[in-house]
Amino acid sequence: MSADRNTTGTDSPAARLQTLFEGHRLTPTQRRIAHSMVRRAADVPFLSSVELAELAGVSQPSVTRFAVALGFDGYPALRRHLREVAPAEPAPDAGAYNEYQQAVEAEIENLRHLAEVLADPRPVQRAGRVLAASRPLPVLGLRAAAAQAYGFSYFAAKVHPDVRLLDEGGTMLQDRIDAAVRAGASALLCFALPRHPREVVDTLVYAKESGLTTVTVADSAFAPVARASDLLLPAAVGTGLAFDTACAPMLLGRVLLEAMCDDLPDAQARLEEFDTRAAARGLFVE
User: What is the pTM of this model?
Assistant: First the structure.
C-alpha cells in the first residue's frame, strides 16, 4: 500500500474511515466490510451490526470480528467511535427516488468522494510522472475494466509516444509484459474493477517482479489488487443496477491523463499536430 494513497488532505467521513483501517491486515471479508463502510460513510455510525452485515453481504459475527481486528472491544465500541468522527446526522433519505434515480445519486456521491480525495493532488501527480517516464507504457484492463483501459489508451496515444493496450487475457499476456520491459518500460498502469479477475492480480504481481512500477486505478483501497500495486488510486463504482457503473474510475482516468500530460513537455505540440492533420483529412464533422 502506497503511503501516498490515503493522504487526501480532507477531513471527510470517508477519509477518516480509511485512516482508521490503514495499517491493519484485513481478511477478504473484512476488506469487503471496510469497503462498504467507506461507500456509506455518513450512514455507518447509525447502523447496527446486523444492518452493516446486510450492507456488506457478510455474517453478523464477521462484523464483530472486524471491529475486534481494528482494536475495539466489539462493534458497539466501534460504532461509538464512528459517531465521534462522523457527521451528527445521517445522509438524507433517498426513498423518494426510483431505482434509476438512486443509481444516479449513488454515482454523484462517488464523484463527490473522488473530489475529496483529489483535494490532495500529490498521489495523482506522482502517478502522472511515473507513467510519463515509461517508454513504452503498458495499460492493463481485463473484462469489466477493459473499456477503462481502452479509453485511457486511446487518448494517451495522442500525447505519449508508445502506449501498449493489454485488454485481452491469456498466455500471451506475460509475453507482452516481457516485450515492454525489453523495450524499456518502467511502469504499468492497471484499471481494476469488480469482479476482480485472478489473472489481473497475477499479472500485476508478475509486472512488479519484472521491475515495473505498478499504478492501479481500482474501485477501493481494499481491492484485491492493492497488495500488488505500488500506487493505488481509488474510485468507487456504483452497484445499484444489474451491472456496476464506473463514472468515478473513468473520470479518475482522465485526471490521470491530465497529470501525465503535465510531465510530457511535447504533449501540447502533439495535440496541435493531431488537430492540424485531422482538419486536413476532414476527419471530424464540424
Answer: 0.77
Segment among 39-43, 66-70, 228-232, 273-277 with least mean pLDDT = 39-43
Q: Using CA atoms, how far apart are residues 197 and 147, in angstroms rounded to an integer?
A: 15
- 187 and 137 in contact (C-beta within 8 Å)? yes
pLDDT tens readout for residues 179-238: 999 999 999 999 999 989 999 999 999 999 999 999 999 998 888 999 999 999 999 998
CB 248 within 8 A of CB 237: yes
